[in-house]
Design goal:
This protein has four helices and no strands. Helix content is 78%, strand content 0%.
Length: 98
């Protein structure tokens, strides 16, 4: 190859590198825009779809009772906050004695 051909080849490769850099930049920009759009859509969806786990007041008696009753046999479940307090005291007495 002649010097002129080599110079032309180098210029072509440099141009190709620049084109790849630009393509990469725009691909990344487009992906970031897509991510931003998806995040916004997800936020909108979360606000549209009510969820008791996101909005429920975790200090209510009903919530405390439901959490206590979760994964318990029906005969061990409680229905009032008074029953709940009694059961919890019993459980702590058992754990401290054993």
């Amino acid at each position: 190859m002649t010097k002129k051909e080599l110079t032309s080849k180098v210029e072509d490769l440099e141009n190709e590198i620049e084109q790849l850099k630009q393509d990469y930049y725009f691909d990344i920009r487009n992906k970031n825009l897509e991510i931003y759009t998806l995040k916004q859509q997800l936020k909108a969806l979360v606000y549209k779809v009510p969820s008791k786990y996101l909005t429920e007041n975790k200090n209510t008696d009903e919530f405390r009772i439901s959490q206590f009753n979760r994964n318990r046999a029906p005969e061990e479940q409680v229905s009032t906050i008074k029953e709940l307090e009694v059961k919890i005291k019993e459980l702590f007495k058992e754990n401290n004695n054993g």
